[in-house]
Amino acid sequence: MSTSRALLSSPHGGAGPTFTRARARLAAPSIPFARCGALRARTAILSSPAATVPVTSSEPKRRISRSVSDSAPRAKPAVLVAEKLGEAGLDVLRQFADVECAYGMSPAELLAKVAQFDALVVRSGTKVTREVLEAGRGRLRVVGRAGVGIDNVDLQAATEAGCLVVNAPTANTVAAAEHGIALLACMARNVSQADAALKAGKWQRAKYVGVSLVGKTLAIMGFGKVGSEVARRAKGLGMHVIAHDPYAPADKARAIGAELVSFEEAIAKADFISLHMPLTPATSKVFNDESFGKMKTGVRIINVARGGVIDEDALVRALDSGKVAQAALDVFTVEPPAKDSKLVLHENVTVTPHLGASTVEAQEGVAIEIAEAVGGALRGELAATAVNAPMVPAEVLSELAPYVSLAEKLGRLAVQLVAGESGIKGVKVVYTSARDPDDLDTRLLRAMVTKGIVEPVSSTFVNLVNADYTAKQRGLRIAEERVSHDNAAAEAPLESIQVRLSHVQSKFAGAISDGGDIVVVGRVKYGVPHLTVVGPYEVDVSLEGNLILCRQIDQPGMIGKVGNILGQRNVNVSFMSVGRTSRGKQAIMAIGVDEEPDKKTLEKIGAIPAVEEFVFLEL
User: Could you give the CA distance from residue 64 to residue 54 in angstroms, rounded to a whole number?
Assistant: First the structure.
């Protein structure tokens, strides 16, 4: 979820300055890529280094076979299952592989064993570290995580080792939603406390009077698979459901009977708050003293998502003060929590030991889902649940690298300009190029635009393998258009990339084009991505560091005024660029800064009479 906040109000009645906190991974992407026509390349997706094959067809391949004679005997791959997996999943694995189950191994035992296997299947208890992946180099090709979270797998090391990581994100959706509803009802009626009291010989009917769910407002924070299933069930209980998720399509929410609102409105209106967002740098401890202070007195909180989204010490303080009446928690920042945890032992807290996916049906579904994903990966198929991919050949990335970075940063900029409650319904990417369409495969660039839009507010890792799947799952409709650039002598693969978000509200009106869409355009200059257009304004901005966009009245001295304010606050300016529609009318000033200005500095910029609005963006 986004943690964008409108922190300042414009003293001149215009749109208030807006800050976006969208920190996410900016490492160089490692994405398998088969070039078409002139962009042909040898690509090793899942096979061993000695078994790569050239890909020359102009059509995307769903499978890349290993170059072994059809008449040669084929040994079964070997799969190591390091944690308990349901029999149904083991049966699927045994159909194509030799399977060894070795539960409860120490890290040293895993290091000694892993080099004998082509695939490793784990749950959350086994750490697949860089050391494990290096020990498996030369043979280990697939790591399967039986579940959603991949915090226990070193993705960068896996990518460097050419090892594909797949997970099982869908099979436990209903189980997690049901557990959320179970905790909701249990908390509202004091079931666990009353049970403990009665077993201790106490009959305390008056003490454990609960609250009804009918007519109460439930705020669902994160309206993905689990969140939407919780909403369906809560509606059946007669609750009024509101939700916050910057990516949830409004039509999907309406179909369920939920209303999409801003983060602040959701926490302010709710009687119950159910958490279903991923744990990212942007959502870490997003529920803290400040957030609790904005909630109704007596609010009740359920968390079956990730423990780290709550500041647990702040929650204890809110419970002690009565601001939060009760909490029901299935997840914790550290698992298992300390035996003397004040939160766990609090009398108004109901706890379970991370049981969200723990049903017979969900465990079987996860086992089958991960077994099928591992099997497909070992056969060389591109898995929709892949969360990383092997390294691309250096010669391919060397040509596309600046455009890959440009595409991702344009997506990242565009999503930060969207008002959080409006959601994103349509994305259009326009490529301007002098090359023949057959000589430019845009799948990689489309994937990076998707990555830039999705990753800042999600725990999903986007690459060429799963980009289209991820976009579809999140309701993002991504269209592409190629515009011919009449320059036969051009050597660069692209002249420019445009990202256009349609039917959205913007927190920065200057980014809205004449057609009513958020529009950003960029190009590569001297090997560096540059922003060249924002809405109707032309600018020239190196996409490095952080960026402040100011919409202002075009008049002399504006650059000096803003520059002096930043200089007085010891904020280093890397560049400034001004674009305007016409002389003396409106203009946009783009300011690159190395550091993030503090609130007082931004207040001073907002107080300049000619400044109508501004937004701070992180790249």
Answer: 9
